[in-house]
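Catalogue entry: protein

Sequence with per-residue tokens
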Amino acid sequence: MSARDAIFPPGRQALYDQNRYSAAIRSGDLLFISGQVGSRDDGTPEPEFAAQVRRAFANLKAVLAAAGCSFDDVVDVTTFHTDPEKQFETIMAIRDEEIGAPPYPNWTAVGVTWLFGYDFEIKAIARISAGAGETQESRD
């Protein structure tokens, strides 16, 4: 069995190391992205809900970019919400800005009671295009 091919966005690996998980794992042509929350660079949450959702999408976008992907490559999304009924309108407005036009990825929204001090989390699976995110060493 081969080692996990971990992907980290620039400047945030210390946060992942501190919490003992990878931002994403590449497996073949798939990228499995851990749940991204609205954390600032120092790991603290954005206090305002819409800003927290925007930051979660920005953090997801950074992980995708680190693997040579974009939202166009996302095939499956799962979001977690601490108060879905009150939050859904805000989330959908930001989602529309970030995800763009159809066809949309699969999407599952889950209501939860706890997200470690956050109110929104987004995780995704993306297909990696041939050659995306390769380093010179991986092509040699």
Q: What stands out?
A: Helices lie at 13-19, 49-66, 84-99, 136-139. The longest strand covers residues 30-37.
